[in-house]
Amino acid sequence: MPKISAATVADHRAQQHRALIAAARELLESEGDAAAVTFTAVARRTGLARNSVYKYFPDRSALLAAVVHDSTPVWTERITTAMAAADGPEQQVAAYVRAQCELVRDGEHRIARALAGDRDAAALREAAGEAHRKLLSPWSAPCPTSATGRRCAPPNCSRAW
What we know:
The chain is mainly alpha-helical. The chain contains 7 helices and no strands.
């Protein structure tokens, strides 16, 4: 009988789910290659049996998509926070670029590159597309200063970014 390490079975399953995603992220970051993310490797990192991983993810593509889904808020939060702290359009562009460079420095871009180069990349396109839309959202929001509500971006926008 497996040990439950949480107050409820639902909490335990949520913990295991998070642990599996974290293990996949660690493999992507350390190896730089999505091929390293196998159910055997992920199970080994979490202390689960390989067949237990299937209780949480039907296949490897679903696990990799969960990594993208889990990573997107981290990436977008860092970028939007940096941009919100900047004064004026030029500083916001600089903050956007700086935040992207910091994500590269911190290994997040290595995860994204590993996922993009995977044999199952086609299955990840939807999750990756959503991630990119969120990362680009500060640049494509309707302009509140435009009478037409058209989208605009610096330097042609007069709004206080």
